[in-house]
Specification:
By secondary structure, this protein is an alpha/beta fold. It is built from 15 helices and eight strands. It has two domains: 118 residues, 3-Layer(aba) Sandwich (Rossmann fold), CATH 3.40.50.11890; 175 residues, Rossmann fold, CATH 3.40.50.11900. Its cofactor is [4Fe-4S] cluster.
């Protein structure tokens, strides 16, 4: 089966309707066990040090995995993707550009989605059928989210992992569901976590720091809300919402104020004690921290990640101190 690389979440239903295997390059990069080697390979090929590690990782992963077709999201994600696309094309890789409309209007989303359908030669009926088949899978991921914040049984990392994997369903939605049901069955049997633990939200792009959730849990905290990862699931949409509206409802690619409305709702619903705002070094989204700290009325710790791997000593100390403060406030 032909594999198509993704730089972030796109209308995956179109790819599945076309009979191709979607591959989220981010997920392969960060779980490869050789992320630093991939970054080094990108720098050997000319990528500067002061470019986001995710961009370098995406580039080198596509080369290493011999991906010959990629959908590059040029609007609504990373501002460096346009240049990354040009480098891939110079390597002979076929890159399809896709942009989330910044005006967030139905007519513009119609054009973007229909353009992708034409490229893969599928019709709206086939795409809507796949959307309906994915609906129960998305709802089971939503249930795992509830096992995290409502029933206090799933960990923050499990919540993160299964939600973020909805970008491509690991290339095989049916096997994804089989694996997910096994995990859910195991989680349901657990004794709930203690109420005294600090309840945190995580906002911002998924972390490149591999032990972030473990560090939080080792200090009596627990992430019960992963903002962007939750958005990837699209699980809040009714089964009858059409494909164009569903991707208009997807908050990640659009303005910060839209995201903040969802975040504020989650703070109340999930009874959050504090928030981790993760930013990536050299990423334009780091500027959003100014507005986030002004808009959200709860303690916020901003963490900046750079290279993949475990957290450095400074980050560990800041997390420990933040959680100590929240524990004192909670008591």
């Amino acid at each position: 089966m032909k594999r198509v690389g993704l730089t972030t979440t796109v209308p995956v239903e179109i790819l599945l309707a076309a009979g191709v295997r979607p591959v989220d390059l981010n997920n392969i990069f960060v779980t490869s066990g050789k992320a630093l080697d991939l970054i080094e390979a990108a720098e050997i090929d000319g990528f500067p040090r002061n470019i986001c590690a995710w961009i370098k990782g995406l580039y080198a992963t596509a080369i290493a995995e011999e991906i010959d077709t990629i959908i590059g999201v040029t609007e609504g994600d990373c501002s460096n993707t346009k240049s990354l696309i040009e480098v891939w094309q110079s390597k002979g890789i076929d890159v399809i550009s896709f942009g989330f409309p910044q005006k967030r209007q139905y007519e513009e989303m119609l054009q973007a989605v229909d353009g992708l359908m034409r490229h893969f030669q599928v019709n709206i009926e086939a795409v809507e059928e796949i959307k309906r088949k994915l609906y129960p899978i998305r709802q089971r991921v939503k249930y795992l989210d509830e096992l995290t914040w409502k029933y206090n049984k799933a960990t923050g990392f499990e919540n993160h992992l299964w939600q973020v994997s909805c970008s491509d369903f690991n290339g095989d939605p049916q096997q994804f569901l089989v694996d997910l049901e096994k995990v859910i069955g195991s989680i349901e049997k657990r004794t709930p976590f203690e109420d005294k633990e600090v309840r945190l939200g995580y906002i911002g792009v998924p972390p490149i720091v591999e032990d972030l959730y473990t560090l939080i849990e080792n200090n009596q905290g627990r992430v019960v809300y992963n903002e962007v990862q939750k958005a990837f699931t699209m699980a809040e949409n009714n089964v009858d919402v059409d494909i164009h509206q569903m991707y208009l409802n997807f908050t990640y690619p659009y303005d910060l104020q839209t995201r903040l409305r969802d975040i504020k709702t989650a703070i109340i619903e999930r009874k959050l004690d504090g928030m981790i705002h993760y930013t990536q070094s050299f990423c334009h989204r780091g500027i959003e921290d100014i507005v986030i700290k002004k808009e959200l009325d709860l303690p916020i710790l901003t963490i900046e990640g750079d290279l993949p791997g475990k957290a450095d000593a400074r980050t560990k100390l800041r997390i420990e101190s933040f959680l100590d403060m929240l524990k004192d406030l909670k008591e």
